Amino acid sequence: MEGGRDIKTKPQSGFRRFLSAVIKEPRSIGAIAPSSPYLAKYLIAGIGPGSRVVELGAGTGIVTQAILESGVEPKDLIALEQNGEFTDLLKERFPNIIVAKANALDLKQHIGVLDGPPDFVISGLPLMLFTMKQKTSLISQAFEVLGPNGFFHQFTYGGKCPVESSILDLIGLKATFLKFALLNLPPAFIYRLERR
Known about the structure:
Helices cover 33% and strands 20% of the residues.
């Protein structure tokens, strides 16, 4: 255990659980493999000691681990995951962070345990599978809870930003392409949403 970052399970165990979850609930996962460390590194750009972070769709914890390794204190990280198998795995791997078995569309109900507004919302959700109404609700909630200079980071396999310009315009946001994670299966594009 180092700085509250106790990682107990082996990566192979996480991969087995990922495959099991994909077989049981393929539409809720939206990926064919866990995120790579390269994707995680790009997705957490700008996060460091003192940052408060909400992670949506934490999966097997690859991005969670990168967030903690960036210097974020366990008390400053909330991971939301609706898949029960992944939630159990996250609690085993990271016993000192807050892990909530929850739908990301209930985001506002789970951030009260942080000492202040989050600086980042990091999303591993398959937004391309969300309806416009679901996306609008999610992004609206995220920017209601984020601090004034807060960021929403999202990756996608589709190339273009998965949040349509009509939603960005409605909420008063802009999207910026951050990075292309070639060494991920499949390769992924990372976007940052922020207030205009």
